[in-house]
Amino acid sequence: MMMMAIVVVEVVMVLLIVVIVVAMVMVGMVVLVMVIMAVMMVMNVVVVMMLLKVFVIFVEMVVVIVVTVVVMVVMVMVVVIVMVVMMGKLVMVVVMVMVMMM
Length: 102
Description:
This protein has helices spanning 2-50, 53-101. The chain has 102 residues and is mainly α.
């Protein structure tokens, strides 16, 4: 019975971690979109003054693409790390169960 309780606790912990990570990613995405919008507006105002529209639009595209790629990479890394941690936890639990069985 004790082992079952420990396993349940571990699973709950892992689920909590996943939920927190997902929430953080969501918030990060929203903030990112807001920042990009703000930057776009500022750049567009500057463009109206400078008349370098094509160049600035190109720069905007590059910035957006780079930021998006960076965010994607970071998200993937976080997910991978979480997965590794989970696997470690699961392995630990399994080993503990094995030892208990001995």
